[in-house]
Design goal:
alpha+beta, S16 Ribosomal Protein, Chain: A
Length: 202
């Protein structure tokens, strides 16, 4: 039988109270024990003498017959000067676990994607401003709205806008549109002449 000196939990929910017991290591934590040699109340302050009560004589006896103390009880025994506890050094204690590392990587990836999206939108705004400036430079002052739209599309695509839509064509088109209006003007004058002739006859 392997004998252990360990804690057995008692108390209420969220208000723990422990017995320091000597028990068979194969038994349940809160099960049957051989002897109770002390108590531990974690709710009390660390400097309170009632926090840990230990029967040193019985603890020494059980250690003498080969009982093994759990880590927490070994701390109590070391503090009481009964049995020195070897200092433990765990350099990886502060390192996060594998799942925590995975979650950190996922967060970093999401942050990087968000930054890329933000910089992409800023770049698209910059390119839109550059296209607007280029269109303003390419479009002549006397060009029609259709010509300006065509030049803007070509500039945004990177094509040669000035070659396909030269500035000289725009005035010619405007002149063509004005010609029918000039032809219509004499037609309007004929009724006025007729009315003048009628007055002369009358």
């Amino acid at each position: 039988m392997a004998v252990a000196i360990r804690l057995s939990r008692g108390g209420a929910k969220k208000r723990p109270y422990y017995r320091i017991v000597v028990a068979d290591s194969r038994r349940a934590r809160d099960g049957k024990y051989l002897e109770q040699i002390g108590t531990y109340n974690p709710l009390l302050a660390k400097d309170n003498p009632e926090r840990v009560k230990l029967n040193e004589e019985r603890a020494r006896y059980w250690l003498g017959v080969g009982a093994q103390a759990s880590d927490r009880v070994a701390r109590f025994l070391d503090a009481a000067g009964i049995k020195e506890r070897a200092a433990r050094n765990n350099p990886q204690k502060a390192e996060p676990g594998e799942k925590a590392k995975e979650r950190a990587e996922e967060r970093a990836n999401k942050a990087a994607e968000a930054e890329n999206d933000a910089t992409g939108s800023v770049k698209s705004e910059d390119t839109a401003e550059a296209v607007a400036d280029a269109v303003a430079d390419e479009v002549p002052a006397d060009a029609s709205a259709e010509d300006a739209a065509a030049i803007a599309e070509e500039v945004s695509e990177g094509g040669p806008a000035a070659e396909e839509a030269p500035a000289e064509e725009a005035p010619a088109e405007e002149a063509k549109t004005e010609e029918p209006a000039a032809e219509e003007a004499p037609a309007e004058e004929t009724p006025a002449d007729e009315s003048g002739e009628e007055k002369a006859e009358g």
